[in-house]
Design goal:
2 domains; globular
Length: 245
Protein backbone atom coordinates (compact mmCIF):
# COMPACT_ATOMS: atom_id res chain seq x y z
CA UNK A 1 0.00 0.00 0.00
CA UNK A 2 1.11 3.56 -0.71
CA UNK A 3 0.12 7.03 0.38
CA UNK A 4 -2.76 6.83 -2.09
CA UNK A 5 -4.44 4.11 -0.07
CA UNK A 6 -8.02 5.26 0.60
CA UNK A 7 -9.27 5.79 4.11
CA UNK A 8 -11.45 2.94 5.34
CA UNK A 9 -14.61 4.41 6.88
CA UNK A 10 -16.65 1.94 8.93
CA UNK A 11 -20.18 2.87 10.03
CA UNK A 12 -22.07 0.84 12.63
CA UNK A 13 -25.75 0.03 12.85
CA UNK A 14 -28.60 1.16 15.08
CA UNK A 15 -28.06 0.43 18.76
CA UNK A 16 -24.42 -0.56 18.31
CA UNK A 17 -21.09 1.26 18.60
CA UNK A 18 -18.06 1.41 16.35
CA UNK A 19 -16.51 -1.38 18.42
CA UNK A 20 -18.47 -3.90 16.34
CA UNK A 21 -15.81 -3.26 13.69
CA UNK A 22 -12.88 -4.26 15.92
CA UNK A 23 -12.76 -7.86 14.63
CA UNK A 24 -12.81 -6.72 11.00
CA UNK A 25 -10.18 -4.03 11.61
CA UNK A 26 -7.91 -6.66 13.14
CA UNK A 27 -8.53 -8.97 10.20
CA UNK A 28 -8.09 -6.35 7.47
CA UNK A 29 -4.82 -4.91 8.77
CA UNK A 30 -5.53 -1.92 6.53
CA UNK A 31 -2.40 0.05 5.66
CA UNK A 32 -4.25 3.33 5.29
CA UNK A 33 -6.24 5.44 7.68
CA UNK A 34 -9.17 3.75 9.45
CA UNK A 35 -12.12 5.76 10.74
CA UNK A 36 -14.76 4.02 12.83
CA UNK A 37 -16.76 6.66 14.71
CA UNK A 38 -19.59 6.22 17.16
CA UNK A 39 -22.54 7.81 15.37
CA UNK A 40 -24.63 10.44 17.16
CA UNK A 41 -26.74 9.00 19.94
CA UNK A 42 -24.55 5.91 20.26
CA UNK A 43 -21.56 4.87 22.34
CA UNK A 44 -19.27 7.76 23.24
CA UNK A 45 -21.02 10.19 20.87
CA UNK A 46 -23.33 12.86 22.26
CA UNK A 47 -27.09 12.56 22.10
CA UNK A 48 -28.70 14.96 19.64
CA UNK A 49 -31.91 16.91 19.21
CA UNK A 50 -32.67 15.09 15.96
CA UNK A 51 -31.59 11.99 14.08
CA UNK A 52 -31.40 11.43 10.34
CA UNK A 53 -29.13 9.77 7.81
CA UNK A 54 -28.16 13.23 6.60
CA UNK A 55 -27.37 14.47 10.09
CA UNK A 56 -25.13 11.50 10.75
CA UNK A 57 -23.49 11.87 7.34
CA UNK A 58 -22.73 15.50 8.15
CA UNK A 59 -21.11 14.46 11.44
CA UNK A 60 -18.96 11.89 9.66
CA UNK A 61 -17.97 14.28 6.87
CA UNK A 62 -16.43 16.59 9.46
CA UNK A 63 -13.96 13.81 10.32
CA UNK A 64 -12.64 13.69 6.75
CA UNK A 65 -10.06 15.95 5.17
CA UNK A 66 -11.08 17.96 2.11
CA UNK A 67 -10.93 15.69 -0.96
CA UNK A 68 -9.76 12.76 1.18
CA UNK A 69 -10.12 9.54 -0.80
CA UNK A 70 -12.15 7.02 1.16
CA UNK A 71 -14.36 3.95 0.93
CA UNK A 72 -17.33 3.18 3.15
CA UNK A 73 -18.48 -0.09 4.66
CA UNK A 74 -21.70 0.42 6.57
CA UNK A 75 -23.78 -2.01 8.60
CA UNK A 76 -27.57 -1.65 8.68
CA UNK A 77 -28.19 2.01 9.64
CA UNK A 78 -24.58 2.73 8.75
CA UNK A 79 -25.33 1.64 5.20
CA UNK A 80 -27.94 4.38 4.99
CA UNK A 81 -25.39 6.91 6.26
CA UNK A 82 -22.93 5.65 3.65
CA UNK A 83 -25.53 6.17 0.93
CA UNK A 84 -26.08 9.73 2.16
CA UNK A 85 -22.35 10.39 1.88
CA UNK A 86 -22.42 9.00 -1.67
CA UNK A 87 -24.90 11.67 -2.76
CA UNK A 88 -22.05 14.16 -2.70
CA UNK A 89 -24.14 16.59 -0.66
CA UNK A 90 -21.80 16.32 2.31
CA UNK A 91 -18.53 16.84 0.48
CA UNK A 92 -16.34 14.60 -1.62
CA UNK A 93 -18.20 11.29 -2.16
CA UNK A 94 -16.56 7.96 -1.34
CA UNK A 95 -14.79 5.87 -3.94
CA UNK A 96 -17.08 2.95 -3.15
CA UNK A 97 -19.80 1.99 -0.67
CA UNK A 98 -20.45 -1.45 0.75
CA UNK A 99 -23.46 -2.25 2.91
CA UNK A 100 -24.27 -5.16 5.20
CA UNK A 101 -27.77 -6.04 6.39
CA UNK A 102 -29.65 -2.87 5.47
CA UNK A 103 -33.32 -3.35 6.37
CA UNK A 104 -35.00 -2.24 3.15
CA UNK A 105 -38.65 -3.11 3.70
CA UNK A 106 -40.55 -1.57 6.62
CA UNK A 107 -44.18 -2.36 7.35
CA UNK A 108 -46.66 0.34 8.36
CA UNK A 109 -46.94 -1.34 11.75
CA UNK A 110 -43.17 -1.17 12.31
CA UNK A 111 -43.06 2.50 11.35
CA UNK A 112 -46.03 3.36 13.57
CA UNK A 113 -44.27 1.85 16.60
CA UNK A 114 -41.10 3.93 16.26
CA UNK A 115 -42.38 7.13 17.94
CA UNK A 116 -43.54 5.12 20.96
CA UNK A 117 -40.17 3.37 21.19
CA UNK A 118 -38.38 6.71 20.90
CA UNK A 119 -40.48 8.21 23.70
CA UNK A 120 -39.61 5.52 26.23
CA UNK A 121 -37.00 6.53 28.83
CA UNK A 122 -33.77 4.52 29.01
CA UNK A 123 -33.92 1.31 31.04
CA UNK A 124 -31.66 1.22 34.08
CA UNK A 125 -30.12 -1.91 35.58
CA UNK A 126 -28.43 -2.72 38.87
CA UNK A 127 -25.36 -4.30 37.33
CA UNK A 128 -23.31 -4.01 34.18
CA UNK A 129 -24.04 -7.53 32.94
CA UNK A 130 -27.78 -6.86 32.76
CA UNK A 131 -27.20 -3.56 30.96
CA UNK A 132 -24.77 -5.22 28.56
CA UNK A 133 -27.31 -7.93 27.74
CA UNK A 134 -29.85 -5.20 26.99
CA UNK A 135 -27.33 -3.41 24.76
CA UNK A 136 -26.68 -6.68 22.92
CA UNK A 137 -30.40 -7.11 22.31
CA UNK A 138 -30.74 -3.54 21.03
CA UNK A 139 -27.84 -4.01 18.63
CA UNK A 140 -28.80 -7.50 17.46
CA UNK A 141 -25.69 -9.01 19.02
CA UNK A 142 -27.37 -11.04 21.76
CA UNK A 143 -26.25 -14.64 21.36
CA UNK A 144 -23.38 -13.55 19.11
CA UNK A 145 -21.05 -12.15 21.77
CA UNK A 146 -21.08 -12.40 25.57
CA UNK A 147 -21.96 -9.53 27.89
CA UNK A 148 -18.32 -9.28 29.06
CA UNK A 149 -16.94 -9.12 25.51
CA UNK A 150 -14.78 -5.99 24.90
CA UNK A 151 -17.19 -5.09 22.07
CA UNK A 152 -19.73 -4.06 24.74
CA UNK A 153 -17.41 -1.53 26.42
CA UNK A 154 -18.95 1.64 24.97
CA UNK A 155 -22.39 0.11 24.64
CA UNK A 156 -23.21 0.71 28.30
CA UNK A 157 -22.66 3.53 30.75
CA UNK A 158 -22.87 3.84 34.53
CA UNK A 159 -24.84 6.74 36.02
CA UNK A 160 -26.13 7.70 39.43
CA UNK A 161 -29.33 5.83 38.55
CA UNK A 162 -27.50 2.64 37.63
CA UNK A 163 -26.32 1.02 34.41
CA UNK A 164 -27.97 1.68 31.04
CA UNK A 165 -27.32 1.29 27.34
CA UNK A 166 -25.49 4.29 25.89
CA UNK A 167 -27.91 4.57 22.95
CA UNK A 168 -30.39 7.44 22.88
CA UNK A 169 -33.82 5.79 22.42
CA UNK A 170 -34.78 8.61 20.05
CA UNK A 171 -32.13 7.46 17.57
CA UNK A 172 -34.62 4.88 16.27
CA UNK A 173 -36.18 7.80 14.40
CA UNK A 174 -33.14 8.08 12.11
CA UNK A 175 -35.10 6.98 9.05
CA UNK A 176 -38.29 8.90 9.79
CA UNK A 177 -39.14 11.16 6.88
CA UNK A 178 -36.38 9.75 4.70
CA UNK A 179 -37.22 8.49 1.21
CA UNK A 180 -37.48 4.75 0.69
CA UNK A 181 -34.17 2.97 0.30
CA UNK A 182 -35.12 2.28 -3.32
CA UNK A 183 -35.14 6.03 -3.97
CA UNK A 184 -32.33 6.81 -1.55
CA UNK A 185 -29.88 4.58 -3.41
CA UNK A 186 -30.71 6.06 -6.83
CA UNK A 187 -28.16 8.28 -8.54
CA UNK A 188 -25.39 7.78 -5.99
CA UNK A 189 -21.98 9.11 -7.01
CA UNK A 190 -20.15 5.96 -5.90
CA UNK A 191 -20.49 2.32 -6.94
CA UNK A 192 -22.54 0.63 -4.23
CA UNK A 193 -22.41 -3.02 -3.26
CA UNK A 194 -24.98 -4.55 -0.93
CA UNK A 195 -24.80 -7.72 1.15
CA UNK A 196 -26.59 -9.59 3.91
CA UNK A 197 -26.26 -12.68 6.03
CA UNK A 198 -28.17 -15.76 4.91
CA UNK A 199 -29.95 -15.90 8.27
CA UNK A 200 -30.52 -12.16 8.76
CA UNK A 201 -34.08 -11.86 10.15
CA UNK A 202 -34.38 -8.22 9.07
CA UNK A 203 -33.74 -8.45 5.33
CA UNK A 204 -33.77 -10.99 2.50
CA UNK A 205 -32.48 -11.09 -1.09
CA UNK A 206 -36.08 -10.72 -2.30
CA UNK A 207 -36.31 -7.36 -0.51
CA UNK A 208 -33.68 -6.03 -2.93
CA UNK A 209 -35.67 -6.70 -6.10
CA UNK A 210 -36.49 -3.03 -6.68
CA UNK A 211 -33.15 -1.65 -5.52
CA UNK A 212 -31.10 0.24 -8.15
CA UNK A 213 -28.07 -1.87 -7.24
CA UNK A 214 -26.89 -5.29 -8.32
CA UNK A 215 -28.36 -8.27 -6.43
CA UNK A 216 -26.88 -8.46 -2.94
CA UNK A 217 -24.10 -10.78 -1.94
CA UNK A 218 -25.30 -13.37 0.59
CA UNK A 219 -22.97 -14.56 3.34
CA UNK A 220 -23.71 -18.24 3.80
CA UNK A 221 -24.54 -19.27 7.36
CA UNK A 222 -24.28 -15.76 8.81
CA UNK A 223 -26.82 -13.46 10.43
CA UNK A 224 -27.43 -9.73 10.81
CA UNK A 225 -24.02 -8.86 12.28
CA UNK A 226 -22.00 -10.76 9.71
CA UNK A 227 -18.89 -8.62 10.23
CA UNK A 228 -18.74 -9.74 13.86
CA UNK A 229 -19.60 -13.37 13.17
CA UNK A 230 -17.06 -13.86 10.37
CA UNK A 231 -14.96 -10.74 9.74
CA UNK A 232 -12.59 -12.50 7.34
CA UNK A 233 -15.40 -13.50 4.99
CA UNK A 234 -16.95 -10.05 5.05
CA UNK A 235 -13.63 -8.32 4.49
CA UNK A 236 -12.74 -10.61 1.59
CA UNK A 237 -16.04 -9.75 -0.10
CA UNK A 238 -15.69 -5.99 0.38
CA UNK A 239 -12.02 -5.97 -0.61
CA UNK A 240 -12.88 -7.57 -3.93
CA UNK A 241 -16.17 -5.75 -4.53
CA UNK A 242 -14.65 -2.32 -3.91
CA UNK A 243 -11.51 -3.17 -5.93
CA UNK A 244 -9.17 -2.40 -3.06
CA UNK A 245 -6.23 -4.31 -4.54
Amino acid sequence: MTGSTPTLLLLHGLGATAQVWDPLIATARWAGRVLAPDLRGHGSASWADSYSFGGMASDVAELLEVDETYVVLGHSMGGGVGAALATGLFGHPPRAVGTIGVKIVWSDEELEKLPDIAAKPPRFFKDREEAADWFLKLSGLFGVVASDNPLTERGVIHTSDGWRASQDPRSVLVGTGAPSFTKMFEGLLAPTFMSLGEHDPLVSPADHQNMPTDPPHVFSGLGHNAMVEDPATVWSWFFQAASLT
